[in-house]
């Protein structure tokens, strides 16, 4: 019982630390504004967002294979996270050296460092959900994820306020150096949460050794064996596509309304407020009426957010869209993987999570890169119309009737 409470607390703190770290390293606010200050073009800014998906996509099969061959996962996960976060400090160190004197070189250094950083992101969901399914009881999953995210977002309001102060009071580029360093410091502290987890029970391990070709060959077999899972993956791809709008809200505000550092700081604050509301409400919803309803509500929020900008011209609509799309993301992050856990036996979970991530990441990469060209050659409104319709489509796909869990699958949750 003591170890169970300890692990629940560590999962709670992991989310709190991660949410605050990613406030300082917000790709949709802080990093986008940083690159805009470096005179990066639309494609480069879109590429930064796409690299999150591309890096994860490339590394998915490698980390899936690694997880499936480990009986204990927490310590290995901590090592992977430590390497990822220490290496990104080199990028942070380059900011005061090149951002002002050689901005184009700084853009290139950042893109390379960000690509390496995101290769390790491919380990996140596979390791995390394997540990979460193993160490957290089913009746506590929704509330734990919701309340931890909500608590993290409360503290993130302070982090967002600090970002605003640093952006306005500290001269460029030292303001971004401090902001990025603070984010990495929190991520390094987060590594300790997994290092300290107690993982007594050994998972059953059937040694697997597959290459990229065999990995992709296994995908249709999973879809045939679990047809509802196939529908879920399709729905999630549309929901994740709707998230792509978030990458362009800041750039749209800067170019259309000449938004400055105060507005950018407000975007990070809106993210925190949306995460607080979404996390608490969705966490309670998940345990009371199920994760499918959370995902449906999230998809509607994502669709309406983008369509709001298309329908109304004004900075207020960008603020509202930013909030709604963040609510969509928090709902997807809270319930997406757990929803898959409800459809797939725990022994097959690493592969199922990996396949879903692969499809979602591929979709996200294509939409993000394609949207950068659409924004330049057509308009931002065309981008937001497409992502809005993707959110609505995701709602209808996820809404489809869900079969009851078999007793065999349910036994894997205990």
Commentary on this structure:
The protein is 81% helix and 0% strand. Helix 9 packs across helix 10 and helix 12 packs parallel to helix 14 (315-341). The chain contains 17 helices and no strands. The chain starts with a helix and ends with a helix. Keywords: Membrane, Transmembrane, Transmembrane helix, Transport. GO terms for molecular function: transmembrane transporter activity. Its main location: membrane. It is a multi-pass membrane protein.
How much beta, percentage-wise? Answer: under 5%
* Strand segment count: 0
Shape: globular
What is the oligomeric state here?
single chain
CATH structural class: Mainly Alpha
In round numbers, the mean pLDDT is: 84
Q: How many H/I helical runs?
A: 17
- Major β-sheet annotation: none
* Low-confidence regions: 403-414
Number of domains: 1
Helix content: over 70%
Radius of gyration: 20 Å
CATH architectural label: Up-down Bundle
Keywords: Membrane, Transmembrane, Transmembrane helix, Transport
Protein name: MFS transporter
Main location: membrane
Transmembrane segments: 12-35, 47-68, 80-99, 105-127, 147-168, 174-194, 232-252, 264-286, 293-312, 318-341, 353-374, 380-398
How would you summarize the topology of this molecule?
Elements: H1 2-24, H2 30-37, H3 42-68, H4 74-98, H5 103-121, H6 124-135, H7 141-169, H8 174-195, H9 212-225, H10 227-243, H11 246-257, H12 261-289, H13 291-311, H14 315-341, H15 349-377, H16 380-398, H17 407-410
Which features would summarize this protein structure in a list?
membrane, disordered C terminus, MFS_dom, 17 helices, globular, 0% strand, 414 residues, mainly alpha, Growth Hormone, Chain: A
